[in-house]
Design a protein that fits this description.
324 residues, alpha/beta, Rossmann fold, 2 domains, 4-stranded parallel sheet, globular
Length: 324
C-alpha cells in the first residue's frame, strides 16, 4: 500500500484531514487494542540462540533491512536472518537459496541470503527452531517487533528522520503500528536514519523521553551511479529517498517512476520505462530491493545502486550490538 497523504501532511494551522481522521478513529482504537491484547496474552518462547529484532513502529519502510544487514555484518559467522517472507508464496520455515526468487520468499530475504544464511517463516518460532537446528547462534529478525511469539534479547527500533511518526496516530488514522507510549518502552535502542552524513542530528521530538541509546545513521552508496542521464524507478515505501540519493551522489537524474512497495514488476511496465529512457538517451536504474523482483531477462538491462547503512559512531553501534 502507499501511505495516504494525510498521515504525513499538515494542514494550514491544523492537522490535515480532521474529518477523515475522526471517521477512522474507532478502527484505529480497535487496531491498537488488538495488538496490545496479542502481546499481553502471548507468552514469548525463549530459544537456544540470541534473538535480535530490528523493527519499527510505523507502516512501511523506515530502513529495517539495511540495519539488519549491518547487524549481521557486525556479528558475522553464526548469525542467521529470519523474516516473515512478506510478498512470497512460501510459508516456511524455509532456508533461502538458489533457485528461490522474490516471488517465492519475498524481496528482503533475497538480500539477506546474499549475506549468509537467511530464513523465512510465517511462524517465527518454527523458523527460529529450524535455523537453530541448522547452526544459528544468533537470530536477527528483520521486522517482528509487534510479534510476541519469540522472546527477544535485544530490540532496535528504526525511524526515518524525514517521515518520523507522521501525525502520531495509529493505523488507519495514521502510520503507527501501535502507540508510541506502548512501543518505545519495549525497545533497547533506536536508530534514526538521516538524509545524509551532513544532516542535522537533533533528537526527534518523538524520542525526547526515550532514555536508551539513539544512533544516527544514513545510507551510503557502495558504488557511484553510472554516468549520463538516468531514469530511476522504485517500488519501495519512500521512492523519493532513492531519487534524492542519486542526486546527492551527483547522478544525472532525468526522472523517477514510483510504484507501490514490494511491487512485482512485469515486462510491459519495464518495456514502457525502457522506451521512455531510450527517447531521452537515459539508462534505467533501480534499488537492490527492486532488482530482485525484476523478471530474469531484465536484470542485465537495469543498473542497480547498492547501499549500506553507515553510522555516525560505527564503533559505538558495533559495541552495543555485540554486548547488549
Amino acid at each position: 500500500m502507499r501511505a495516504p497523504d494525510f498521515w504525513y501532511r499538515q494542514g494550514i494551522g491544523r492537522e490535515a484531514a480532521p474529518v477523515l481522521r475522526a471517521m477512522l478513529a474507532p478502527m484505529a482504537a480497535a487496531y491498537a487494542w488488538a495488538g496490545a491484547w496479542r502481546i499481553a496474552t502471548t507468552t514469548p518462547v525463549r530459544v537456544a540462540a540470541r534473538v535480535i529484532c530490528v523493527g519499527n513502529l510505523t507502516m512501511g519502510g523506515a530502513g529495517k533491512t539495511p540495519i539488519a544487514r549491518a547487524v549481521r555484518a557486525i556479528l558475522g559467522e553464526g548469525a542467521h536472518t529470519l523474516s516473515r517472507g512478506y510478498g512470497g508464496l512460501l510459508r516456511g520455515p524455509h532456508r533461502v537459496a538458489a533457485p528461490d526468487s522474490a516471488a517465492d520468499v519475498g524481496d528482503e530475504p533475497m538480500l539477506h541470503a546474499a549475506d549468509g544464511p537467511a530464513w523465512i517463516a510465517r511462524d517465527r518460532l518454527a523458523g527460529a527452531q529450524a535455523a537453530i537446528a541448522a547452526g544459528a547462534q544468533t537470530l536477527i529478525l528483520d521486522d517482528g517487533f509487534q510479534n510476541p511469539s519469540l522472546a527477544k534479547d535485544l530490540s532496535i527500533l528504526v525511524f526515518d528522520a524525514g517521515a518520523g511518526v507522521g501525525n502520531g496516530r495509529v493505523f488507519p488514522a495514521g502510520p503507527l503500528r501501535e502507540p508510541l507510549a506502548r512501543g518505545l518502552p519495549r525497545a533497547q535502542a533506536a536508530v534514526v536514519f538521516r538524509a545524509s552524513s551532513l544532516a542535522d542530528r537533533a533528537r526527534p521530538a518523538y524520542l525526547e523521553g526515550f532514555d536508551k541509546p539513539v544512533f544516527d545513521a544514513w545510507l551510503e552508496a557502495i558504488a557511484p551511479p553510472p554516468p549520463g542521464p538516468l531514469l530511476a524507478f522504485a517500488g519501495i515505501a519512500r521512492p523519493e529517498k532513492f531519487y534524492d540519493t542519486i542526486k546527492a551522489l551527483g547522478g544525472d537524474l532525468l526522472d523517477g517512476a514510483s510504484f507501490p512497495d514490494h511491487h512485482p514488476f512485469v515486462a510491459s511496465e519495464l518495456e514502457s520505462l525502457a522506451r521512455h529512457a531510450a527517447h531521452h538517451g537515459a539508462a534505467l536504474i533501480t534499488t537492490e530491493k527492486d532488482a530482485v523482483r525484476l523478471p530474469p531477462g531484465w536484470r542485465d538491462k537495469v543498473a542497480v545502486l547498492p547501499v549500506r547503512a553507515r553510522f555516525a559512531d560505527e564503533a559505538a553501534f558495533a559495541a552495543f550490538v555485540r554486548v547488549s
